[in-house]
Records
---
Amino acid sequence: MFDHISIQLLAGQLLIGLINGSFYAMLSLGLAIIFGLIHVVNFAHGAQYMLGAFVALLLLNVLGIPYWGALFIAPVIVGAFGLLMERTILRPLRGLDPLYSLLATFASVLIIEGLMRLEFGSSGLPYRSPMPGGINLGFMFLPWYRGWVVVFSLAVCLGTWLLIEKTKLGAYLRAANERPEIVESFGINVPRMMSLTYAFGVGLAGLGGVLAAPIYQVSPSMGSNLMIVIFAVVVIGGMGSILGAILTGYLIGIVEGLTKVFYPEGSNLAIFVIMILALILRPNGLFSAPEKSR
Amino acid sequence: MTSDALLSVENLHAWYGESKALHGMNFTVRPGELVTLIGRNGAGKSTTLRSIMGIVGKRTGSIRFDGQELIGKRTYQIARAGIAYCPEERAIFSSLNVSENLTLPPVLKPGGIADSDLLAQFPNLQRRLKSPGTKLSGGEQQMLAIARILRTGARFLLLDEPSEGLAPVVVKEIGEQILRLKAQGFTILLVEQNLQFARRVADRHVVVENGVVVDTLDAETLRTDMDRVKHYLGV
């Protein structure tokens, strides 16, 4: 049945799966941090990812700042935008049902995407690869830039996980997730920490956007197309599970790539079949943390 | 208000949402004193501590601590003023181990107890540093909850029912720890339903009923006039 499948095809799709998985992991990581630590379902994550790509494009076209500069500057700008969103839109809704913040972020997606479409149109804009060329591995050709994306996103995911699991700051965040009022009673400015956490998650989305710019066309809808998959990744991994988001992101990317080899017609469905199975068999997600005791 | 009071609560009202829990509390705590708030379940004792700490939804009146007005301040600002709070349910964080729980509160002021001294003072914790915080016994969790707030440098402690649900031998141990803290110069406001425990450790007892202070008893009265106490507590 599968005798027509070559090693080149398999390896190529695995690589594409790994690259897609890198974006899934980075975006779902930011989403999981925001949901897990401040309980906001950030529907604007895709739009913030798109803003990262546009900021990188504008930095290059307007200010002449190349990709490597944009890699640091764009996430900071998008993170600052996230901070503004948190202070003006989300903070007044804190303490209410999470549905309110979900709707508020959804409304902001429509506004941001609409404004970007007005300014830049709907068609995609190209962003030149900062690392042209590649290497022939014998069984496949690996573009340098795609290899960089995989390595860099792995490093970012690992670094973020270490930050949250192994540092004092991470301990504050995890504790504030359980009992924010108790952490505040220790003298920690929890509201500010929450704002900065949101900004950090949004900055990660912006970073994902910068990484994506040379691979995909930079367009106002580039985030919306990804968001459904990203939410599925977060649900499969376990809402709020940092490690779950990272591992599931890569896993889903690879499964999607392999499905394209073995059953191309089902490649877009595979992730949602997995999500349904996960919801039936492990409704809290594959990597969900145990119920917090109070 | 007593001029030498470290904490002075005047006409304190507090609400949880629409529900009013305190109806004009008045009492003071002097430096170095150990004062208990006693009263029936639901009288407003824990709410008083939460109000001092700024954790309830809305509060009015006046809470003066060391010359500063606390009404209007955020919880973290109150902590930085020098007050530490140990809640009734201990609030040990399940995602952190014992060591992380112990060292989570930052040092806010000079005078906090060093980690090595804390472990010497609470030796049970030393053996369980890598265990998840919520895997400790109830008594050990209580020790951990008290120990961790001592590192901040706060000299005024709010302890909410530290003896609740613990075996008598553990309650005795907690009592000894609290007396040791008093001897070290900490000022303590303690919510307690266990009268034996309260009688053993406190200098004064503030009786709370329906969100107001109805009486203040000195330690001697609590020892000698149990009928009066039983009347208030319905025991």
---
Amino acid sequence: MRRVYLDHAAATPVRREVLEAMLPYFSQRFGNPAAVYDLGAEIKEVLEEKRHQVARLIGARREEMIFTSSGAEANNLAIKGAALANLKKGRHLIVSAIEHHSVLNAARYLEKFHDFEVTFLPVDQYGLVDGQRLLKSLTPATVLVSIQHGSNEIGTIQDLAGLAAICRGQGVFFHTDAVATVGQVPVDVQSLQVDLLSLSGPALGAPKGVGALYFRNKLRLVPQIHGGIQEDGRRGGTENVPAIVGLGQAAALAGEELGAKARRLSRLRDLLVAGLTERVPEVLYTGHPEARLPGHASFCVEGIEGEALLFMLSRQGIYANTGSACASKALKTSPVLTALGIAPDVAQGSVVFTFSQDNQEEDVHYVLEQLPPAVERLRSFSPVWRKKTAAAAGA
Amino acid sequence: MYSDMVMDHFANPRNTGVIEDADGVGEVGNPVCGDMMTFYIKVQDDRLVDVKFQTFGCVAAIAVSSIVSEMAKGRKLEEAKLITNKAVAETLGGLPQNKMHCSNLGAEALALAIKNYQEKREKDPRDACAA
């Protein structure tokens, strides 16, 4: 059976060049970068070279990067680390309503255990944060604002530079979770004017278990993993050298390919969006139609539930994602879809496709061939669809 | 994650559809919570001669509806009322923990359809017999 994998935001293969670059660092070049002798010093040098490669991808300096175990850890360090280092300024945080759980729950942790007040900024129907609304939410006690750059659930890319400029004007630190955008679109910390930025290795074709946090110019952070002098004392624990080598290699490759990749993935995405909305009635294209991630197409298919659709598709070798309540362990509809104002029953029909360079045009054709009958079949015994169509016929 | 039995009933659900002149209808859940099931029954001599359902929901919800319809069809009403959510889950070869509530919905929807039939008959015995 044909296999069409379109869940690259969830996991994507480690690139061959990346894996090859990593291999020597497991058994041959195994030294601890903190060791004083040559076997350690040379690994430390490699580490710094990789730090430079990652920094270059986002227009940062080498000494402004901390390696972490994931994008989620980078988000935790940014939010908890910056908030707790600036208690003197105040205890107010602002995050958007459509942040990743690692941002939302880090903010809730501060609320619960450190008496912070958290403002969850609403978004419009496309998932965009309004600058005026942000400005009005700032108080003298606001320490940090965190707004994600791109959304892996709805594809929307924020106009970050505008939002960050508002915060800078008020002397408030600005963090962005750029896990979805780094390696997909150009990301430059100087033009975006952000103070903190999280990125993740797997999104770039590096292995799982590695990420990085950019922090502007000596910005103070309270470590979230207490330990030794690794990462200049900002994060304890011996560095995951092979994974960091992979991240550096992946970042270097991503920088070279960015433009061509974005153009190619946008074309595949547009093909899928046009084909799907034409072939399946009552489908909502979620997120912003233009300001969005190149390889990201997200929909809500009315009258059906997303998990059931994913399984129908996977039986045909197609792999996608959903924000449906039934597919989540907690059985809750994705807060992102709720924040867009999508009705809960419509949000249940969420399906998300994310492309990579491995995908071809034939993959899109295959999805367009397989998805409409799968939807039709689920709708054929859906009481929700029956009521909807009966109401439409009666009207 | 799901047993072979669940996947089979999901991929090939039995007894899907609507009985327009049903003797009893039972509806549980709502799409806002995630799952919604509607069961339709035809009754003759206190026996379920036909059972059909419509389900909006996940893999488990669809498989549960399908197996409940099979377990119920041909049974005496009093036997069908005894179909428990536990029996449903067991017949399906188990359900993931966070999907156990789906098995409640199936048994509940069937029980509601039977209740609906019995209430109608109490109100107007001729109406029920005419079917």
